[in-house]
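Summary of Year 1 activities. Much of the first year was spent building the evaluation harness for sequence design. The harness presents a backbone, in tokenized form, and records the residue chosen at every position. We chose the following record to illustrate the format because it has been used consistently in internal testing since the harness was completed.
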């Protein structure tokens, strides 16, 4: 019996109700018994009964004569009988109401337990019915939010596996086809053929490196060397690395830095990595003879880095997902410049947030360019 009450919330609630009911009945009985004698005496006095020491038989005489004693006993017996029936009826009704309320409270929790079991079995689309505005309804809403997030995580996991398989298969298929062509004599054994094979192998190697980097970033399995960093030095490093690529693509790269920028508190190598990813992304999605602008501003207690391009733009419905792994605005559209692994923006997001900053993307729509910006705190 005790184990039953320990293991069931409904039984605990019912037991607590019974304790409250029993306590109320006991208090009602005790107070009734204690209040009957003075109440009886007070009401008899109001009815004009003679007082002790008066010209007729006094109050004490009435008690000694037995009349008042008999009247008091009859009154008390009547009161106790009425009190018993009242307590019995109240306890019965309260017990029925307690059972009903216990079931009403426990039923949503049973629903939560059943849905959580189905979610644990992999049915992430399950949701709890929310009724009311109390704490249990609030818990149900939070549970549904958690279930929705789990469903999204599972969907991203499946998409990640599919995307990784696709990204790995593409260069592997190209390498395999080229080698088969060499074996069959279809492709000539020229330097150009070997360079194509090498380029696909390098693409495969970059993808593996990016996946390893992403796993480390998402697991926070890396260290940050936080120190005072000059924003201008970061931009110069990125320009030095990517300048030749912009020249070869005939894309203008403009720079706009606030004078006297304060140093920011960050890991310089990681900031360079983030800015490089954003600039490379702008380069890949900007057509020939386009422009890319790097803007650095001092905004209150932060440094704002902004990379704006005149490229293909991003539709509004895709902006919330632009930092997801392998996310493509249009999977069927070939990239300008090609070769990206599709997870550079995801890595950038994690690195910025790990250093106490924020990152976001803006675009007025397809064909109107896009802007990627992030902030980092000043030193």
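For this record, the design step produced the sequence shown next.
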């Amino acid at each position: 019996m005790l184990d039953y009450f320990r293991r069931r919330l409904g039984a605990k609630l019912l037991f607590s109700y019974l304790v409250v009911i029993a306590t109320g009945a006991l208090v009602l009985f005790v107070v009734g018994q204690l209040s009957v004698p003075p109440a009886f005496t007070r009401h008899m006095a109001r009815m004009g009964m003679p007082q002790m020491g008066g010209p007729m038989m006094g109050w004490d005489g009435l008690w000694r004569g037995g009349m008042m004693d008999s009247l008091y006993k009859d009154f008390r017996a009547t009161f106790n009988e009425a009190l018993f029936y009242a307590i019995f009826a109240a306890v019965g009704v309260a017990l029925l109401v307690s059972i009903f309320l216990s079931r009403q409270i426990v039923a949503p929790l049973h629903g939560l337990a059943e849905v959580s079991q189905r979610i644990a079995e992999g049915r992430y689309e399950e949701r709890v019915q929310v009724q009311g505005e109390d704490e249990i309804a609030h818990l149900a809403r939070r549970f549904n939010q958690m279930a929705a997030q789990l469903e999204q995580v599972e969907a991203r996991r499946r998409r990640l596996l599919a995307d990784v398989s696709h990204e790995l298969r593409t260069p592997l298929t190209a390498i395999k086809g080229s080698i088969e062509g060499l074996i069959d004599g279809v492709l000539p054994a020229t330097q150009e053929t070997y360079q194509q094979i090498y380029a696909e192998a390098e693409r495969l190697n970059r993808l593996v490196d990016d996946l390893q980097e992403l796993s480390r970033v998402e697991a926070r399995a890396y260290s940050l060397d936080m120190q005072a960093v000059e924003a201008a030095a970061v931009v110069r490093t990125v320009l030095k690395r990517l300048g030749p690529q912009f020249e070869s693509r005939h894309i203008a790269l403009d720079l706009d830095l606030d004078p006297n920028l304060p140093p920011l508190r960050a890991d310089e190598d990681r900031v360079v990595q983030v800015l490089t990813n954003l600039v490379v992304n702008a380069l890949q999605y900007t057509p020939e003879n386009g422009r890319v602008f790097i803007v650095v501003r001092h905004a209150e207690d932060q440094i704002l880095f902004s990379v704006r391009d005149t490229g293909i733009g991003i539709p509004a419905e895709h902006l919330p997902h632009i930092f997801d792994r392998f996310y493509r605005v249009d999977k069927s559209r070939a990239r300008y410049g090609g070769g990206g692994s599709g997870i550079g923006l995801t890595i950038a997001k994690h690195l910025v947030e790990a250093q106490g900053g924020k990152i976001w993307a803006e675009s007025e729509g397809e064909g109107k360019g896009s802007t990627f910006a992030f902030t980092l705190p000043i030193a």
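DSSP finds nine helices and seven strands in the chain. Quantitative recovery figures across the full test set are reported in Table 2.
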